[in-house]
Amino acid sequence: MPAKPGPSPEVLAEFETHRRELCAYAYRMLGSSFEAEDAVQETFTRAWRSYDSFEGRASLRSWLYKIATNICLDMLDRPQSRARPMDLNGPGRADSPLPPPQPDYVWIEPIPNALAFGADPAEHASTKDTLRLAFVAACQHLPATQRAILIMREVLRFSATETAEALTMSPASVNSALQRARATMSKVTPEVADSFDEADEAQRKLVDDFVTAFEAYDMNALTALLKADVALSMPPFELWISGPENVAAFMLGTGSACRDSRLVPLAGANGAPAFGHYKPSEEPGVWVPWSITILELDGPTIAGLNFFLDTDKLFPLFGLPPTWTEGSSN
């Protein structure tokens, strides 16, 4: 018997219109941009295989979210939730030696804006806060089903009925779980810093001043930009540093390999200003990958310095070259 034909090219093209929002959803659920991409690809594969059973009783978008949710819940059947270093322990001393790196599955990973945001600027603005590293890390404190319910109801604005359909639950159970999820999030979500708005001249100047100070390795200028309780973290290391003086001491000590670095602007990550961070190599005039660096802003100061050091995975994800020279285009 010949195989049934799959969906038409038009339907597959409609699948694609939902890729970025599904990727953002899976990222909030999983805390990993790579796992999120895998989840979306598996969602489309399953949707393609079972399209004949989709009878239009729900919207295509709702149906895709139902499939994606089941895939994410299966992927979350693991012993450990992802975290940020500050979720695991208190701040370290600036002169502390770096501990052994932890496996990549321990950490919240960054996600490029281009993977998570659609072309609609209004949608971008309304969902940016829920892609913050701190929000995604806070979500990891929730049981998987509560996490899905919170994201679907609070971020995606699904109704209780739509959410219940996706999770094969009753609307009453969804609402009860949502209340528990809200209570947990109120305890574990840190104070919200400012959203980054590229049109905000003061914020752009703050970011530009940071780049100038960091590339000059001018610790006086750098610390003047930092919030009093600024946090510096460097996954895959558990060690994190708090406070401008400790950040400067760390930079001049254990972190001194970053002297004479170059910060190559990216189109953003997690809705925040981000850079491909290259450090000097042994070859003059050539810089090599060091981190994806993401800034968190709070008013006229920088509240978070996030250095993600798994460059073998992350630089290709952000479309960055393996080396940088003075003649490279940003």
TrEMBL record:
Note the SUPFAM superfamilies from the entry.
Answer: NTF2-like, Sigma2 domain of RNA polymerase sigma factors, Sigma3 and sigma4 domains of RNA polymerase sigma factors
Where in the numbering of this chain does the RNA polymerase sigma-70 region domain appear?
A: 15-78
Which keywords does this Swiss-Prot/TrEMBL entry list? DNA-binding, DNA-directed RNA polymerase, Sigma factor, Transcription, Transcription regulation
Q: Which GO terms describe its biological process?
A: DNA-templated transcription initiation
This entry carries the following GO cellular component terms, namely: DNA-directed RNA polymerase complex
Question: Which is an annotated GO molecular function term of this record?
Answer: sigma factor activity
What quaternary arrangement does the UniProt entry report? Answer: Interacts transiently with the RNA polymerase catalytic core formed by RpoA, RpoB, RpoC and RpoZ (2 alpha, 1 beta, 1 beta' and 1 omega subunit) to form the RNA polymerase holoenzyme that can initiate transcription.
Please report the name of this protein according to its UniProt entry. DNA-directed RNA polymerase sigma-70 factor
